[in-house]
Design goal:
single chain, 267 residues, alpha/beta, Vcp-like ATPase, Chain A, domain 2, Rossmann fold, 2 domains, seven-stranded mixed β-sheet, four-stranded antiparallel β-sheet, 7 helices, globular
């Protein structure tokens, strides 16, 4: 027989609490990723009190002083990535999605990341290695590291990330890693370090903005003995669906870089 408090327990699990991350949505141009708090948010469509979200369920709405409805949605990983505060160019979800499916990122995985940037990829990696895994992230720029840490803390994922203010040259402290991501300007300089840290059969990934970097990186991977080397560019174009005038969007996030994947074998 159900416990008399079971209904209250279920309701408490789905009610928005102070400090919860909420995606507050009106349309594609007017939306916010915010923590439920006592703040007032001013928008082009009026202002609303974030406190009004506390105690409500995801899917409900709050209304601005001008009568515009905003909906309280569960935060999407996509929005967590796209709404990081940027101090660097970020890896876009189109690239991150390919990295996740081309590599072994799983709950409990040990991941190494060199070059945290603004924390966009780190957010996704931390999301998928939890609850037992860890992302060991290295960044030489203190300002970038502090900003990325704030972004990841806002997204509620910082406990699965180890933040290191350090420039790696020879090798990473961690060994038996399931995945290594290199996101620095001279990717080939860390290929040996990545090889030393990866498990046999595990993958490395990097992103190269230019053809010159791409060529040098791939040749360096071949020289080191990596196999299954793949290079690609990921393009995504949205479609505007309108009655009688459906067409592709004119703007799109096109070239962000060439992704490179490679697998370590035991020589």
């Amino acid at each position: 027989m159900p416990c008399k408090n079971s209904r209250a327990i279920v309701l408490s699990l789905i009610m928005i609490k102070e400090g919860d991350l909420v995606f507050i949505y009106n349309d594609d141009k007017h939306n916010f990723l915010l923590k439920a708090s006592k703040n007032t948010i001013h928008t082009a469509k009026g202002f609303f009190k974030l406190q009004d979200a506390i105690g409500r369920q995801f899917g409900e709405k709050i209304t601005t002083n001008l009568g515009t409805d905003f909906y309280l949605l569960r935060p999407y990983l996509y929005e967590m990535i796209m709404k990081v505060r940027r101090q660097t160019q970020i890896l876009y979800p189109k690239d991150i999605g390919m990295i996740l499916v081309k590599s072994q990122i799983f709950p409990g995985a040990k991941v190494i990341e060199s070059g945290i940037g603004s924390g966009a990829l780190t957010t996704a990696l931390a999301n998928f290695v939890r609850p037992e895994g860890k992302v060991h992230s290295y960044e030489r720029n203190e300002e970038f590291l502090k900003n990325a840490k704030k972004n990841i803390e806002k997204n509620g994922l910082s406990q699965w990330v180890e933040f290191n203010l350090m420039e790696i040259s020879g090798e990473f402290p961690q060994k038996d890693a399931d995945f290594v991501m290199i996101d620095i300007g001279s990717q080939w300089e860390l290929i040996d370090a990545a090889y030393k840290s990866l498990k046999g059969g595990a993958r490395l990934a990097t992103i190269c903005p230019s053809f010159e970097q791409l060529s040098r990186t791939v040749f360096s991977l071949e020289e080191k003995g990596f196999i299954n080397i793949e290079s690609m560019e990921v393009l995504v174009r949205k479609i505007l669906v309108r009655k009688g005038k459906t067409r592709p969007e004119q703007r799109m996030p096109s070239h962000t870089g060439w992704l490179v994947f490679a697998t370590k074998i035991l020589l």
